[in-house]
Amino acid sequence: MSDAETEGRGRRGRGGRGAGGGGRAARQASRSGGAKAFKPYISRGIGYFEPFNEEHLATIEYNADTVLQEIGIEFRDDPETLEIWKEAGADVQGERVRFERGMLRQIIQKTAPSVITQHARNPARTVKIGEGNSVLVPAYGSPFIRNLDEGRRYATIEDFRNFVKLAYMSPGLHHSGGTVCEPVDLPVNKRHLDMNLTHMTLSDKPFMGSVTAPERAQDTVDMCKILFGDEFVDQNCVVINLINANSPMIFDDTMLGALKVYARNNQACVISPFILSGAMSPVTVAGTLTQIFAEAQAGMALTQLVRPGAPVVFGTFASSISMQSGAPTFGTPEPSLVLYGAGQLARRLGVPFRSGGGLNASKTPDAQAAYEAANTLQTAALGGVNFMLHTAGWCEGGLAMSYEKFVMDADQAAMMGRLLEGPDMSENGQAMDALREVGPGNHFLGCAHTQANFENAFYRSPLADNNSFEQWESEGSKTMEERANEYYKKLLNQYEAPAIDEGVKEALEEYVAKKKESMPDANY
Amino acid sequence: MSDAETEGRGRRGRGGRGAGGGGRAARQASRSGGAKAFKPYISRGIGYFEPFNEEHLATIEYNADTVLQEIGIEFRDDPETLEIWKEAGADVQGERVRFERGMLRQIIQKTAPSVITQHARNPARTVKIGEGNSVLVPAYGSPFIRNLDEGRRYATIEDFRNFVKLAYMSPGLHHSGGTVCEPVDLPVNKRHLDMNLTHMTLSDKPFMGSVTAPERAQDTVDMCKILFGDEFVDQNCVVINLINANSPMIFDDTMLGALKVYARNNQACVISPFILSGAMSPVTVAGTLTQIFAEAQAGMALTQLVRPGAPVVFGTFASSISMQSGAPTFGTPEPSLVLYGAGQLARRLGVPFRSGGGLNASKTPDAQAAYEAANTLQTAALGGVNFMLHTAGWCEGGLAMSYEKFVMDADQAAMMGRLLEGPDMSENGQAMDALREVGPGNHFLGCAHTQANFENAFYRSPLADNNSFEQWESEGSKTMEERANEYYKKLLNQYEAPAIDEGVKEALEEYVAKKKESMPDANY
């Protein structure tokens, strides 16, 4: 066992310091007007919105089985995966694999866990993904960033670090995310090292790993072993990873390679058909759901064949396209119905469910961005998404990460946490004493019950301006975007890194340095 | 029977011309990118979101009965109402009235209808309010308007007419509303005449009447009789009216006077406790719901005592306040829970339910306005609001009506119509042929199923910009607010009034002119 591994494991034993860092951030966020005491994830106190009935769901399940049996799924350029399917009894012809009715469901239900505990290096930040728990995660994958000062430009590793810091400081976000933006100033084949290092050192929330090549996935696992210890990583989920299907009905060797690395190492895969309905799936809600369910089952079952019991999540990313221009659209009714349906199918299957939070097509954090993001977030929250990617920052169909929208969305995320707690029906919540004390025609502002409860009674947004028109005008008539611009800078100025064992940090930095030296820069 | 009355009734018999006017507007809206064929109201194809369980609801019902029995409700400056309560067996002491457990529920359930048909002068626009039906209605009551050209200023009758035109042209809005803005350029005691005349002549959608004095309510009923005919009005609901409680636990003589006029004439009252939680109700969700349910039952039961079977709606308007400044806040989690709970209570009681749509505290139609409005609209839609006031235009906590936000919200309203229809589970909706035709790795854009369905497959927003960044930039980098500014002006330019019988119109104008002559201008 190397020193680094010892340090990594030792680190977990000294949670106090890490938790101290987290506590400081939570207090800061609370002072800036956030939610109540930090909760590492949402544990919902209320039910789901479920617009599909039993007959609808049975029809989609039946149709998905028909797709898997008749049409099948292609697994491209990956003989090992085809071999795995053959051994499992699937019908493999060339790269096309067909499955008997119910075969994939059976494989998944036999070993896939219904809830995943993803460990954070600070145990107080460890999350549960699945069942009634929701983890809200920053947006993922934008090559551009946007802010009010600079407009839109390519993202850099400095931006990446900033978004990791902002996520760390946002009580409504439970996760550090993955590629919070693409650091395009770094070579493609080395970016993942700096991204991993950033998540591991500048935050103590859980994070996502690299999936752009199997060896980058392996780097992620190896760095996790430095941080958490070899044995701990083999027995526990410490990183979660986004495996997209190439819809329709294809998995490619890049994604399959990453999937196998993570599953073999007992780390979580989110199997996500990436769908723009009308282009990559049928133009209807039920047809899209059918395809998503077929594709997701194929990827999920594969993880269980690679390592039975490996953590896996049923993912969806579904939007519509404009049938005039082909451009993707967000926050509209049809993708909302797809999300609700996919959540119901995931719960029937008994696996955790991933979908998107604050999706939108707007180029700036204006009203369009907010309407569409709020529609998506509400749907994801009420539809029971367990791992809510893209909750904060996403603009322009995912092409740009907005600093201002990041803090706006994080504010909305914290509200969702409060909503999903549900009503307080305790005696204090019922407030009969207040009603008796005040009576007709008086006000409740000064009554004993209000005095005892006012501090945490209502969610307080740090960004909403609820003042009078006159006061707002006297303060410069600022839009929410302008206030958010000031707010994210204030947060970044207040940022303090969570404590980390220096030995672990050095070992991680050494790993990154050595890896970088071992290969030439490449942009593929 | 007067000529006017004959004309009014005759008018209803010649629906073709009115429908022609409506059809033209619907076609225009459709060309501008609206929804599918105009539907006069939403008939939901999916269920409700119901976060309160049986035990929660029974507790709130019990507590509301306790409030009614122990504390009671005050009916101020209205001896007639106190007399009505005495006759009904309530405990009347001074102006305070107390009710035995279950008494009000029994009165309401005995005669109040579960669904109201509100007739429009164009039968194709007649709406159903209650059960699985939702009617989306413009905002109500702002003294100011805002647009991008002028900023914020006092509203005029010209603005009022503009909003009535915009509502008429919005396929997502089913109703012309009431005081869509306060025409403050007209004397207070005569405004209602011009407002009624505008709704009756510039639109053929259903509308709301005046409640600011009993005699103004009577004017509304009398004008309705000109439009619809005496007998028709006595037997059918043709106007719906907003009766606010003076929370906590007070009804005043103005509102009671209007309530009695409308109920006696068989016209609909929306009994709405107007609540800023923490000031006018306890600082908790359950306490606020208890008070709302007590107050609303008192008002609803009164309508049934005045005229058994009179149409009545359980209304709520609940927001929170900032416990720092006392300012109202909107789109936050606690009022959402109140709305969901109130909807569940209304359905258990068996009466139609009213709440708000696009509420927000923002001074401009920026991201704050949109986040808060979308949160409110989603809650209202999923919570089963039957009469959704304030769906379009509301800004600044109701103080200002925004032209730009009006068309943005109307767009969102149309999306809600699509969402609540639910999924199409027909064979065409299941799209198995498309999946078979396309198969792995191809796209669905050109397939036969897509070609047959693309026109109505997805909701098309006339305001969302889904184009590339480069195209958006080349078109002037416009925010949604700027696009909405152009769009509402285009709509107003395209406006054509729906056909109306000239005789009826003249009779209405004559009524207004005579009434105005009969009294001096007054600003109270």
From TrEMBL, chains A, B:
One of its GO terms (biological process) is methylation. Its EC number is 2.1.1.-. It comes from the Bacteria. One of its GO terms (molecular function) is methyltransferase activity. Residues 25-34 have a biased composition (Low complexity). InterPro entries: MttB-like_sf (IPR038601), MTTB_MeTrfase (IPR010426). Gene3D superfamilies: Trimethylamine methyltransferase-like. The keyword Ribonucleoprotein does not apply. Residues 1-34 are annotated as: Disordered. Residues 1-10 have a biased composition (Basic and acidic residues). Keywords: Methyltransferase, Transferase. This is Methyltransferase.
